[in-house]
Amino acid sequence: MLTSTAIAPARPTLLEGNALSQEVQSISFRFSDLLSNRRTFLAAAWTLRRRGIICLREAATPELIASINRDVGELLEEIESGNHGRLASLAYLNLPDHRVLKGYNQFRDADRAVINYRVKRPDGRSGSDAGMIDIFHPERLSESLNSSIRECLQESMIQRLLLASSFNRLRVKCRNLYINRGVQDTRSYHCDGRSLKFKSFVYLSDVQSLADGPYCFVPKSQRRRRLWWRNASYNKRHGLGPFEFSQLQGAEAIALYAKAGDMVLSSQRGAHCGHPQHPQARRAVLVNMFQR
Fold it and tell me: What's the distance, CA 153 to chain centroid?
């Protein structure tokens, strides 16, 4: 049987130019309009249900984004200083040369923040996101971050929107802060399982080109059961994981360019990935996962 490293995935066509602009415009809404206009709120919920992804412009104010970025900058300086005494009392430190926790479930269910450096996989498989600092439960690091992160993520409104879209009450399962610095070994198109799950992404920095490593998504893929079964069947025959979208020939994907303060909300059943970055690129995103 072939291994996953021996198979080149059939990727979708990544839209560009006017085609991309029109597609993104059709799923974009001003966040303030959701608050003030019931018709816009319902249109956003319906679009999310049908397309699997929406972009909410200006979900967080520039002042709030600046406050979070100041705190994150100070945190990074402390992490990289090598003096980890204070941080070790607040968080589990999973550093490249010293791992104290292992596995997503341990990170998600930890009783305090987890500062996790993603490193290359021991078995050499691709998709490690090596170079990313993935902070689980960042709101637990300080009172300042707790206040600003919760305000930024707009959880009450997003839960109402998800209820209107999915007809299910979803709760916050985990908050994360992704800090990408020249991440190139990204996972190819995949889904996060077949259970009902959504993520919101609030951009803390502008993402304006492929070099920045935007979030990419295949619209409507969360509803295409035949596409899912075709990929699952192929994956089983070729030794790939069940949730990889390895066969997306003929499909079209969008890269979500956005400014700091914009929010992307997507169904994690859909085919998605993070685009590889330029080695000098930097990107920071706040992430919220919602499940039943």
Answer: 13
- In degrees and rounded to multiples of 5, residue 99 shows phi and psi of -105, 125
Distance CA 287, CA 109 (A): 16
Other beta carbons within 10 angstroms of residue 247's beta carbon come to 21
As given in the structure block, the two tokens for residue 175 are 């908050």
User: Look-up: residue for tokens 């299910």?
Assistant: 168
- The structure tokens listed for 72 are 């994150």
- Record the tokens describing residue 260, joined without a space: 């700091």
CA angle 163, 221, 272 (to 5 degrees): 90
**Non-local CB neighbours of 237 within 8 Å, separated by 6+ positions:** none
SS3 state at 271: coil
- Kindly report, residue by residue over 129-165, the tens digit of the pLDDT: 888 999 999 999 999 999 999 999 999 999 999 999 9
| Angstrom distances, CA of residue 76 to CA of 20, 72, 229 | 34, 6, 42
Q: Among the residues of the chain, which ranges form H helices?
A: 17-26, 31-36, 38-51, 62-81, 85-90, 104-108, 143-153, 155-166, 225-238
Map 77-90 to HEC letters: HHHHHCCCHHHHHH
Q: Please tell me the pTM assigned to this model.
A: 0.92
State the chain's maximal CA–CA distance in angstroms: 56
